[in-house]
Structures are given as C-alpha cells and as structure tokens.
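Quick start: read one record
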Amino acid sequence: GDILDKNIGVILREIDHLAAIARSFSRFAAPQAAGELPLEAVRIQDVAEEVMNLYRGGEGVLEFDSQVPSHLPPVQAREAELREVLINLLENSRAAIEMEGRIVVEADSGEDQVELRVRDNGKGIPRELLARIFEPHFSTRSTGTGLGLAIVRRLVEAWGGTVDVESQVGVGTVISILIPHWDDHNRQLREG
C-alpha cells in the first residue's frame, strides 16, 4: 500500500507527460493554422497578461515580468494559438535558466506589425545550433519532444508573421515574433 501511494503520483505525472508528447506530435502534424479557422483580431496584451499570471503564480526563484503596453493595436492571429506560442516560448526560457533568473515578455508596435519578444537571461544557445532550433525534433535538452519551436514557427507563419532569435552563450536568448496588424489584414481582404 505504501509503495503504491508513493508511486501513484509519479505514474500520473508520466501519463500527463506522455499525453503532452502525443498532443505535440498531433499539433505539429496537423495544426489548425492550415486554414481550418479564420484569423481574428487578437489583443496581444490580453493574452500576454493571462499567460504571465499563470507563470507568476508559481513557486521558485524565476522572475516573470511583462512589459506589454495596453495600447497596442490588435494583430491577425488566433487567440488560442498565440497563447500556445507564448507558453512554448516561456517553457523554453524557463528550461534555459539553471538557477535564479528573469524572463521578460515585451512588445511594441511598428508601422504595420507588432513585435512580441520573450527575453531570458538563461544559458543561451551556441551559435552553431541557432540555425537548427526551429527544426522538428531538434532540442538542446534531453527532455521534451523538440517540437515546441517548430510549432511556434508554423503557427506564426500561418498568421503572416515571422520569428527570429538572438542568443549569446552565458547571457541569454531573445525570441522575436513579428505579427501583422489586424487592420492591414482587413485592408488586404478588401483590396484582394
């Protein structure tokens, strides 16, 4: 009885982990971004605040900071997918920090797009691996599926956006996402 009680938590966590891996494979193979759902006007600041509240509530020595202004224009995306993108990026940042650290989500608006950045002061990514981090099944860690950043890129590109990364070993990483303003999308539909 004691052995069962002691191990049931481990078994349940492993079941959850395997289910997450299966969902990742399924998500990468057939994302909704293939056109099943229309793009919508999404307020980055609302999604960022919701996701950051989840992370701020956790225990630990990581500091999560949001510097997303409230006046950003809406972007063309899908709200659930933007949430998934942010969670994938925050999880990667969290895994890159070995002890104490800081993760910042920040954004600002340009003429026709919003730039969303997730910045961490983790261990960084070696230059020779940077070109590969968006490849399916590539990971710099021994855990996970290696699909998180591949999914991020696929979703962002389905919205008409781009993803870029800057990293320095021992300093940290910044993932930048450029997402078109919703107004530009509507104008293209009217003119097209």
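Residues 83 and 157 are 15 Å apart (CA to CA).
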